[in-house]
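Please describe the entry underneath.
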Amino acid sequence: MQTFEGFPPEPRVRARQRQSADADHYAIGLQVDRQCTQLVGALIAVSGNRLEARYRPLVVHQVSLPQPTCDLFRGLATGEGGATAMAAFAMQLAAHHTDMIRRLPSMADVPQDDVLAVGLLGPGIWSGSLREGRRYFELNDPSRLAEECGCNVISNFAQRDLASGGIGGPLMAVPQWLLLAESGTERLLLDVGRSVRLTLIPGGRSEDNLNRILAFDVGPGTALLDRLSLRLSEGRLPYDPGGTLAVQGTKIHELVDRWLAEPYFQEPPPRWQPGGVCAEEALETTVRMAIESGWAIRDLLCTATHFIARCIAVAVESYIPGGLSRIDEVLISGGGQDNGLLLAEIGLQMGPLPLTRIADLGWPRGQLEAATVAVLAGMHLDRVAASRPAVSGASAPRVLGQLTPGSPAAWGRLIRYMSSLAPTHLSLRNAI
């Protein structure tokens, strides 16, 4: 269990008067990880609205989901079980969501009635392909949460993007821009997790900068290192802690060139995989080559580390307008920021640009992701489109999410808030 309190770091706020002065309203974001093992929740204070909104995380709380719930999801993800199993899973997860919704305001001394909306992201089941058309079924029960907690719930963010011709993600780009944009500073966010995702964060809040946001999957990340370590050690080493084995190896140039020749790296954005960039085919080929050539595990891990860093450089050179010359700072998030060799290689590829870990900006592990979901909910209320053609390939910008009203009092507060933002007139294009 992890709890992060106070952002920026400060004593926990106890006085209701101070909380009210610091925020116009509050929102909660709940996210379940890809393997459905962890639930992370964030409570954020919101002041202002639309592109002028300021989001301040108050507390983030993380819990492990019980094994029976994880096993039930694993069965659904592999095609086992039908509607009954789905309903049972959604009911179990709703109980954990409910507990989190009640816990977060209590931790921050914020009345639960002051929470304007709760955003849910994941888990769900993806099927289909880009060629056939992707499909997504979310395994949440927003109606039960609205009934149990009385809160307004916003869910099913990916469905609207898919319906408008998008690929279903990445959904985090615009919310992360709202959280991390700094006037006059062009930032590049590298989420170095099991896959590597790149997000261009233009400096400052404006419609022009909103339209410049880019985000796409660069290539495989720590999953490639973990799988190589596991396979080549015959199960003895599930991962290379901190890159300690890789740093002792030597880069195999021909292998880096072979990996970079894969068709995936010639595909222009939008580029996003629901389960992360799969490296299975490259992995199998590499293992065979390693056996035939007698390559050491240290050399392969060293090579894979150089390859990941090189993928990032190629992506920046190919798809970021102006390349590195337009970037002022590189931010690093994800589990890969603990791999010393990988960070060093990324730093070399980024040239003179400063490399900053998200944690060093005051975002402990897990906080940015959970806060992003709360911002997605806030964007729905403010009618700011999180789906962008340049990011997901959608036919036009779209507001994401499906709203489930809470109690009459909560619904009334939400109606009053949204009506206060309604334009007095609409352009012909927006009226159609």
